């Protein structure tokens, strides 16, 4: 573990990661968009990291799910251990040369990997890359992400897209949560022996999926 990026040692033990959005009181009552905050937990519900999105009010209001952001992820001691950077890019299959990309750094300033959207006319598809931009894993979502009162699974697959090794799940949390607070609750399941840098990139992929498909949805209602 001495070769792991500082702060990622704990991910070495995990095969399940829970991401829970924190709802701001002002946003819940007035519908005013504020910077997103998340708790990142283990399978027992213990907080491992917390994340805060940084961008401008202009980006949140005008660009909303397309917005550029920097997500700073810190451990329980307040030390930033992961930084997720999303530039402003297109969110339409009509523009295959300008699709979504995400850069994940750990520690901040050092590339851990990338999330790259792949063009497909029917399915949400992404490639997880390492720090050298070498393809490592694929993520393939369903053709419909509304959920219809149930969880929505994005499968994590080997590069041949035949073998499923995990998933990113959007948990349906009920009518009250979804309509009145629009909170995000996700679970990431991956092999416990997956490189911790790639686990960090998977966390970044989860944030990207949330913004692209669930930011303004009612999650199946």
UniProtKB/TrEMBL annotation:
Residues annotated as signal peptide: none
InterPro entries, alphabetized: Scramblase
GO-annotated cellular components: plasma membrane
Record keyword Calcium present: yes
Alphabetized GO MF terms: phospholipid scramblase activity
Source organism superkingdom: Eukaryota
Family membership noted in the UniProt record: Belongs to the phospholipid scramblase family.
PANTHER family in UniProt: PHOSPHOLIPID SCRAMBLASE FAMILY MEMBER 5, PHOSPHOLIPID SCRAMBLASE-RELATED
Stated role: May mediate accelerated ATP-independent bidirectional transbilayer migration of phospholipids upon binding calcium ions that results in a loss of phospholipid asymmetry in the plasma membrane.
Protein's name in the database: Phospholipid scramblase
Organism this protein belongs to: Helopsaltes ochotensis
């Amino acid at each position: 573990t001495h070769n792991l990026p500082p702060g990622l040692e704990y991910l070495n033990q995990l095969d399940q990661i829970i991401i829970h959005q924190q709802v701001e009181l002002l946003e819940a009552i007035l519908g005013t968009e504020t910077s997103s905050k998340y708790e990142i937990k283990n399978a027992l519900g213990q907080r491992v990291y917390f994340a805060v999105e940084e961008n401008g009010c202009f980006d949140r209001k005008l660009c909303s799910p397309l917005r550029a952001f920097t997500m700073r992820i810190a451990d329980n001691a307040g030390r930033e251990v992961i930084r997720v950077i999303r530039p402003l890019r297109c969110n339409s299959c009509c523009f295959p040369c300008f699709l979504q990309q995400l850069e994940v750094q750990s520690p901040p300033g050092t590339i851990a990997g990338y999330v790259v959207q792949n063009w497909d006319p029917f399915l949400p598809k992404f490639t997880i890359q390492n720090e050298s931009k070498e393809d490592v894993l694929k993520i393939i979502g369903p053709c419909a992400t509304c959920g219809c009162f149930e969880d929505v699974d994005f499968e994590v697959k080997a590069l041949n897209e035949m073998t499923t090794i995990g998933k990113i799940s959007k948990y349906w949390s009920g009518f009250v949560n979804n309509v009145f607070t629009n909170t995000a609750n996700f679970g990431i399941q991956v092999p416990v022996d997956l490189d911790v840098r790639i686990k960090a990139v998977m966390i970044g992929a989860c944030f990207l999926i949330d913004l692209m498909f669930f930011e303004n949805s009612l999650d199946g209602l």
